[in-house]
Design goal:
Length: about 220
């Protein structure tokens, strides 16, 4: 196996990596703030809002992500009176399913972080004369982030690996190209290259989160 052949295999995989990272980035950028909104809903005193968020989390966490991807792409267009308005491309369907799924998981992670904070922190902030907004932004959220970072790091790494699921609806991400090359050449080596690329990306993600954890420990 010469170097030229390895390059020939790697170039398409790098093209797929761009799609993989695009799905990853879009999901992360949208699902994290959406997850925080879900957390606020779960802690809301309004029964309707709280019930909606609890149902949302239950459904999205209780069904496979693969099923959700298939439903958004194949299922929504089949719903009468709705399908003609909710037909998405393969890429958009993948992003929507990922955002909905991971916002539910991040919502539970952030909720756990809030529960871990001593209630005395709220009372201390009130004694100091801080408003509710100042209490959340200056006292509660920074502590919540520190508590949640390890779980967020694990979920983020899982998100990167889960992007391989979008190949089921024909999104041409990294694994799609790897499978195509394996079927074409009859060698598993493209899977090895794909594994290396995943590991490289995960290495940088792990480094970033370790850096953030050290910053918040100070």
């Amino acid at each position: 196996m010469d170097f030229h052949y390895i390059i020939t295999l790697t170039v398409p995989l790098l093209q797929g990596t761009v799609v993989t990272l695009a799905i990853f980035a879009i999901t992360l950028v949208i699902s994290v703030p959406l997850g925080f909104l879900v957390t606020l809903g779960l802690n809301s005193k309004n029964g309707l809002i709280k019930g909606f968020c609890e149902t949302y989390v239950y459904i999205l966490r209780g069904t496979p992500l693969l099923l959700q991807i298939l439903f958004v792409y194949f299922g929504l267009p089949l719903i009468p009176w709705i399908g003609k308005y909710l037909t998405f491309s393969r890429f958009a369907s993948a992003c929507i399913a990922f955002v909905l799924n991971y916002s539910a998981y991040f919502g539970e992670i952030f909720r756990g972080g809030l529960l871990a904070i001593d209630p005395g922190q709220y009372e201390a902030a009130k004694v100091l004369g801080l408003t509710r907004y100042e209490t959340m932004t200056r006292v509660i959220i920074p502590q919540m982030i520190r508590v949640c970072l390890p779980s967020v790091a694990n979920e983020t790494i899982t998100l990167l690996k889960d992007t391989a699921l979008v190949t089921v609806i024909g999104v041409t991400e990294m694994l799609h190209y790897a499978k195509t090359e394996v079927n074409r050449d009859g060698t598993p080596f493209p899977f090895v290259i794909a594994a290396v690329l995943y590991l490289i990306i995960n290495f940088f993600l792990t480094w970033i989160f370790k850096y953030l954890e050290k910053r918040y420990e100070q």
